[in-house]
Design brief:
By secondary structure, the chain is α/β, with parallel strands linked by helices. Helices cover about 50% and strands about 10% of the residues. Helix 6 crosses helix 7. The protein is globular, with a radius of gyration of 29 Å. The protein binds one RNA strand of 76 nucleotides through helix 2, strand 9, strand 10, helix 11 and helix 12.
RNA sequence: GGACCCUUAGCUCAGUGGAUAGAGCAACCGCCUUCUAAGCGGUCGGUCACUGGUUCGAAUCCAGUAGGGUCCGCCA
């Protein structure tokens, strides 16, 4: 199936910066070609039917079947009424005025009036050579770069990361990597839950079980934070004295009491260490900037909302009444920004963050990667920020929601005993299973491999599988978590793609080939499978640009899966090392370019390739 | 009461206006003297939940219906 290519209809709008269409000089690959084709079709339209047709979208889309060529222009059908003529006649006139013989074969008019276009092989060969010579594989850099914040992962202090944090972390990382690769100025923020009333009980409990934390946080080892949290919670629920002391501790902390503050820091530090272990394993880069960071800014949010006339008092709380949201009685629903007890909540923090990020960080695009259950919350916060005019012209706030991770029973993923699954254990199991599988394979093939090799491959395959399984799903839908499926060696999985990469490395080893020394040989696309692979390789830039715009990493996964399939077909049908020159070198270049494309694409997903497996 | 999301092959899912709706898995049948068969080819499989509308053209856009899910005042 052809990859859907973004012809950047949205990116060309106002306030979005220059579109990919304006970067032709930097781009050698498919986007520039399509843009070129589009312009020529527009010129043909004007030449055929006059200046009224200026700016008409030629509706250039990939064909759904190779027998129709590579791309088709569907504009003729839509013009039939306006031009009072038959679509096929219109298509004929367009083709008569179209000059594309340097790029394409003779256009074919088919069906009701489709104009089918097929690239000339020598044009593709030249394009491919240009991509081959380009370290960025034809992907342009953003001009100008956008200051972008990606807000993702966001676990809660004093709680262990669990499966619920997996998607935000993996999707956020991939989005950040993709935007960074395009040259955007990305700030990755971990908006951890490091503030709130739960710290009262935690501090009080810490004071009892680990008093040294109250004077020196650096030496403290609280151990298993989940157990610690549960113990504190149990005491809070069971013991009234403890509850009272905890509430006092909250006040202490908020008023800046040094001892409470030190205990809080100890808790945060402990959590941070645990989080970092997970981030290191997953190769995630994040800057922690928790809720507490915004504490000094919260008062101003309320004060300013008041002076703007948006603030109202309702049942003792300070609220902004929302448009388009009503409560059970049909009255406007409030967004609470200051609680009856004078405290602030998450809406206040998010509003303060928007202000800080747009003013101090100068963010032009702020991306929130959270579960879909928070869609209401963000819609409400964005609405208030908008009405308060805190979102400067041209700044885009975007909630990137994702669905639940469910077990194979279709219910929310839990352990057999009903506990939340810890992320640490989930990753361990993925690696353990990958290792078991690998050892079996090594035994079956009577290979001799070192423990280090087994460790490296198991880890790479396990981590890659977990990430790829998540990213390859359309993020908006819930997804069913299955170790068996994600680690499967066939199908749309990480191992399948890693294997395609390994196959290229195998050729390099076997033939003692240094891919960097292939020189300036011509690319020859003689066989059908070579041509198909080449066309797919050229489509990388369009896919990456689309992911950056729409923020759906599964599109890139789909592309890479299809690339692996097309490579395997080529590998099956065309021998490389045994081929005669000049085909041999050309095929080696195709292999190398495939491997580089896989490596780059997987890296944008946060997945590392392996040389052997 | 309101907001949002979902319903596509036996299963898991792609597919946000273009030709005959795709893939993987499962099932079945083939292909290793040749670069790792963790691969390739083939067969089987669908009233795109339903009803209407817009359009030259609808799985896709709009309205409604049914079913499933999530969220909604002092947690985040």
């Amino acid at each position: 199936m052809p990859v859907t290519l973004a012809l950047c209809p949205k990116a060309c709008g106002p306030n979005r910066g220059p579109s990919p269409c304006e970067r032709r000089s930097l781009s050698v690959s498919m986007l520039s070609t399509l843009d070129d084709l589009k312009n020529r079709l527009q010129t043909a339209l004007v030449n055929a039917f006059g200046p009224d047709l200026e700016g008409t979208d030629p509706v250039l889309v990939p064909t759904n079947n190779p027998k129709f060529g590579d791309y088709q222009a569907n504009v003729a059908m839509s013009l039939a009424k306006r031009l009072k003529d038959k679509p096929r006649a219109i298509a004929t006139k367009i083709v008569e005025n179209l000059t594309i013989d340097d790029l394409c074969e003779e256009p074919q008019i088919a069906g009701p009036g489709f104009i089918n276009l097929k690239f000339k092989t020598d044009y593709l060969q030249n394009q491919l050579k240009a991509v081959y010579a380009d370290e960025r594989l034809g992907i342009p850099t953003a001009n100008p770069p956008q200051r972008t914040i990606v807000d993702f992962s966001s676990p809660n202090i004093a709680k262990e990361m669990h499966v619920g944090h997996l998607r935000s972390t993996i999707i956020g990382e991939s989005i950040a990597r993709t935007l960074e690769f395009l040259g955007h100025d990305v700030l990755r923020l971990n908006h951890v839950g490091d503030w709130g009333t739960q710290f009262g009980m935690l501090i009080t409990h810490l004071r009892d079980v680990c008093p040294e934390a109250m004077t020196d946080s650096s030496t403290v080892d609280i151990g298993d934070l989940v157990t610690f949290y549960k113990q504190a919670k149990k005491r809070f629920d069971d013991n009234d004295d403890f509850k009272t002391t905890s509430r006092e501790a909250v006040v202490d902390l908020q008023s800046g009491d040094p001892e409470a503050r030190l205990a809080w820091q100890a808790l945060c530090e402990q959590s941070r260490k645990e989080f970092q272990k997970i981030y290191d394993r997953l190769d995630i880069t994040l800057q922690e900037r928790g809720e507490s960071f915004y504490n000094p800014l919260l008062d101003d949010v309320v004060v300013d909302l008041k002076s703007l006339g948006l603030l109202e008092e309702d049942q003792g709380a300070q609220v902004v009444f929302l448009e388009g949201f009503t409560n059970k009685d049909g009255n406007p629903q409030p967004l609470i920004v200051k609680k009856t007890d004078g405290g602030f909540n998450y809406a206040t923090t998010d509003l303060a963050a928007i202000r800080q990020r747009t003013t101090q960080e100068k963010a032009q695009r702020i991306i929130y990667v959270t579960d879909a259950g928070q869609a209401n919350h963000f819609a409400q916060v964005f609405q208030v920020a908008n009405r308060a005019q805190w979102i400067p012209e041209g700044v885009e706030l975007v909630h990137v929601p994702f669905g639940l991770v469910k077990g194979e029973d279709g219910k929310k993923l839990k352990t057999r005993s009903g506990e939340t699954i810890k992320l640490k254990e989930l990753l361990n199991e993925a690696i353990d299973r990958a290792e078991k599988d690998l050892r079996q394979r090594i035994a079956d093939e009577t290979r001799d491999e070192t423990e280090e090799f087994i460790h490296t491959v198991s880890t790479g395959v396990g981590m890659g599988a977990v990430k790829y399984a998540d990213l390859s799903q359309n993020r908006t839908s819930d997804y069913i978590f299955s170790f068996d499926k994600m680690l499967a060696l066939q199908g749309n999985t990480a191992p399948y793609m890693l294997y395609a990469y390994v196959r290229v490395q195998g050729i390099s080893r076997k033939g003692d080939i240094d891919f960097s020394q292939l020189g300036d040989a011509p690319m020859l696309l003689a066989e059908e499978s070579e041509l198909t692979l080449a066309k797919h390789l050229l489509a990388l830039d369009a896919v990456v640009m689309e992911v950056a715009q729409e923020l759906y990493p599964n599109r890139l996964c789909q592309y890479l899966f299809e690339l692996s399939q097309k490579f395997n077909q080529f590998y099956d049908r065309c021998s490389v090392l045994q081929a005669e020159e000049p085909n041999r070198t050309s095929r080696l270049m195709l292999c190398d370019l495939t491997a580089r494309t896989l490596k780059l694409g997987l890296s944008l997903l946060g997945i590392s390739v392996l040389g052997r497996m």
